[in-house]
Description:
Largest sheet: 8 strands, mixed
Number of strands: 18
Oligomer: single chain
Structural class: alpha/beta
Number of helices: 12
Radius of gyration: 18 Å
Mean pLDDT: 82
Amino acid sequence: MIAFLTSSPGGFRFEEGSILPCRLDERNGFIDNLKRYWKERSKCLLICASPIDFEENDNMRNIIMEAFALSGLEMLVCDICDGRVSDFSEKRLEKYDVLILGGGHVPTQNRFMKQIGLREKIKDFAGIIIGISAGTMNCADTVYAQPELEGESLDSGYDRFLIGLGVTDKMILPHYEEVKDAILDGRRVMEDITYPDSMGREFYALLDGSYLLVTEGENVVYGEAYLVKDGAIKEICQENEKGQGKIFWSLYKRRSSKGRDRTGAEAVSGTLLQPQSSERYRKGPALSVLSYEAVQGTLPGICQPGRIPEEYQ
C-alpha cells in the first residue's frame, strides 16, 4: 500500500460562481511522486465523507476525474462509495488500483467507514490511497477529530479521538494556514482547543500543498509542516523540502524556525479545501469564496447545520 495523505491536492478553481477542474497542485513534487506509482488507466474508487449527499458526491467524482486527467493521471473509471452502495466487499475492493478518501466532516466520514468495515478491508490493499483533508485525518490509527462545527468544542459528548483506518500512526491536521487563526465557539481553535488536546500526544499540521507519503511503514512529509506536541508547536519541514515523520523533531532542531510567508500571491487556484470549511470558520480569502451561496450548493461534501443524518451524528 502506498498512501498520499494530503491537506489538499488542488484540482479545481472558481470561475464566476462555478467550480471548474484544473491540474492538481504541483508543489512539493506531488504530481511527480504520484506518477511514480500510478498505473496507466487506473481504476479508482472515491469513498465519500457524506453518505447521503449523492449529487454533491457525483460532482466531486467528475471534478476529480478531470483534474487527474489534466495532470497526466488517467482514470479508466472512478466509482463512488456512499449510501447508494449496498455491497462493499474485499473482493470488490481488489479490482481498484486507487482509493480516494474525500473531504468532509471527520466524524461523519469516520462512522461511514466503520459501517462499511473499511479498516479491515484495506489491510491487504495493494494499490494507492489518496487522502483529502478529512479523508487524510481518518487514515490515522487514532484520529484526532479536531472540533470544527459550531458547538462541537463545547459538547462534552463530542468524541475528539476516534478509531481510524490505521494507514499511518500520525494524527494529521490539514489546512493549517486557515486553522491557525480560526475561532470556534468563542475560542481559538489552536491555542484554546488543540494545544490542550496535544498534551502527551503529537499532531502533524500540514498546509495545503503539503502531504505525508506513506510507504511500507515509512512516513515522509513533503512541504511546510508543523508538529503540535505537549501544548506547543514547532516547524518541522519547509516548502520544497521533505523529512521522515519518525525523525520530525530532530529535523526541526537543525532548521531555522522561520516559515515561508504564505500571505497573498502564493495561494494556488483550485485548492481542494476541506469542504465543510465554509461552515467551519467563515474566514480567510479562500473561505470567503466558499461562503457564496452558489458554491455551497455545488461543492461536494459541504456539511451544513442540519444536514448530517441522525445515524451519523
